[in-house]
Amino acid sequence: MLSKKQARAFFLGGTVVTFLIFIGLTIFSFSKGQDQTNHEGITEQVVRGKVLWEENNCMGCHTILGEGAYYAPELTKVIERRGEGYIKAVLMSPIPWNPNGRQMVAYGFSKEEAEDLIAFFEWIEGIDLNGFDTVVSPLAKDRMDKN
Amino acid sequence: MKYKSQKVAYWFFAFSMLLLVLQITYGFIMGFARIGFDGLHEFIPFNTARAVHTNLLVVWLLSGFMGAAYYIIPEEAQRELVSVKLAYVQLISLAVVGVAAIIGYHFNWWEGRKFLEIPRQLDYLVVVNVLLFLGLILATLFKGKRKTTTALVLTMGLLFAALLYIPGMLPFDSQVTDSFFRWWVVHLWVEGVWELIMGGILSFLLIKLTGVDREVIEKWLYVIVGLTFLSGILGTGHHYYYIGVNKIWLIVGGIFSALEPLAFLAMALFAVNMYRKGEKKHPNKIALFWTLGSAIVSFVGAGLLGFAHTLPQTNLYTHGTLVTAMHGHLAFWGAYAMIVLAIISYALPNMTGRKLYDSSVGRAAFWLSNIGMLGMTVAFGVAGVAQVYLERKFKMDFMEVQAEISIHFVVLILCATMFATGIVMYIWDFYKHGKPTDEALDLESDL
Q1: CA B159 from centre of chain
Q2: Nearest Cα residue to B376 out of B423, B411, B332
Q3: In this predicted model, what pLDDT tens digit does every residue of B385-410 receive, in sequence order?
Q4: A Gene Ontology molecular-function term (chain A) (predicted)?
């Protein structure tokens, strides 16, 4: 029967080994040739867009890369789906954008800020998402083809 | 209660209860917004309500864990806390940081990073607060007469939780790496080190409530936390499938996160078996309900419902939908909320001397809150599965789908009302116990 000492060895050994593998895999997945985060596509404008994204807690309603609050649409493929003009209008609107009765906060962004956020969304579109981009709602290309 | 300084736990628990009520209130604000009643939008938009709801959860659970540690560590180490005054300072500073963060969220002062919205400036105060807490616990433990496995596992959980807060403070220009390291905090907390804290509290409660030999309970505690880390650390990969990192995580995350339910299954079997084996029947039935309930509901909520969408093939469709909210609610409730409510139910009569061990209000609180939460989970689940099919399979527009599934949020609100009634009853029972007193010293030593 398992002794307490053996049980402790199982805990400590398992933890150390899996943690080392975890660190190794982290290094591997960001290494050259394996990295698929579209890192080279990050410009100053994209960074400004990300700052705006965070300062206004956009993922408190929306999702991006599938992460967020499920209250407002997924924005991973939003430029492809809606086009730049529409997004700009939403971001710069001085009154709450109100699609189908669900209100968005009226941020009233400046033109530059709206463009920064659009650059951020465009950068997101260039990331290799292991196929998530093909199911994320609704498939922009499919829809356009059908219309 | 064996040591006077254990009384400090009471105030951490009371603070927890206050935040829990607020958390539920903000939950209702979100629920009503989803069915079209968003009259508070101008003052409390959804993103504010959401950040407050999830952050209050984290803070009330942490306050509960801290209270648990202040109660358990003196008893395990067999000495008074090294400083009661500093423990109160720590509580007040925790309250100040928490309240400042929550107020800030109403004025667009935050970092929009899911679960870690606390602004950077306040992060540093969190670090100071946690260091003070850990200092008090570690000093008490090491000056104590004995160092039990239960105390060590609990302390290790708290220590690692503090260390893991650091990756979440690193700044990144890339949304992907930001998210990657954010999960080091969030995932490795809730599916890693918090399970150590849960395991430590569970082990303490089982020793007290069942009378089974400490050596047996603590041996299995090691096995359980071993299984937790063995599966949970590499299981972090299930957050990396579709956020823009290497495909290797599809395999690693898939395999190891599929093993994660084993730790919770072991926890449930362990608790039930120890209860059956135990010869001592502690009169505090309510505490026993919450203790066994926590072990069982965490298996269902964290283990089974987590497994339901953890495989990459499934997660491709469920990632970023309400299916996650389904799993999240029952998992947090079972694993962490219930274990905090269990230790409170056990410790309160000991600290106040009022032995309301088996009140009908206490029993009703248990059943109403559990049935209510189960109903909420089902409502989220049905809404989530419908969303997956309509949006991801049939390519319907997001808002069209939201209109279709809004009926499930009416059900959610009804179940949440039942849940909230249970919580109000629990807090009523808490209040009825009165304040902690030195007269309660050693009152339970005969049990």
Answers
A1: 16
A2: B411
A3: 999 999 998 989 999 999 999 999 99
A4: metal ion binding
A98 touches chain B (CB under 8 A): no
pLDDT interval class at A144 (50, 70, 90): very low
Domain limits, chain B: 1-147
| A127/B contact by beta carbon, under 8 A | yes
Burial zone of A144 (CB within 10 Å; 0-12 exposed, 13-18 middle, 19+ buried): exposed
Q: Respond yes or no on whether ipTM tops 0.90.
A: yes
CB-based contact, A75 to chain B, within 8 Å:
no
* CB count in 10 Å sphere of residue A96: 15
What are the tokens at B158?
């708290």
Nearest to B219 among A7, A42, A100 (CB): A7
Residue to mutate among A135, A144, A145, A146, with most B CBs inside 10 A, is A135
Instruction: Please give the helix or strand (H or E) that residue A16 lies within, else none.
Output: helix A4-29
**First CA to last CA across chain B, in angstroms?**
11
Q: What is the pTM of this model?
A: 0.96
A68 strand-pairing partners: A63
**Cα–Cα distance for residue pair B206/B202, rounded to 1 Å:** 6
Structure tokens at B433: 């116990």
Highest mean pLDDT out of A21-25, A99-103, A135-139, B353-357: A21-25
The letter for the amino acid at B361 is V
Q: Contacts of residue A54 in chain B, CB cutoff 8 Å?
A: 111-113
Asked if the Cβ–Cβ distance from A130 to B396 is below 8 Å, we say no
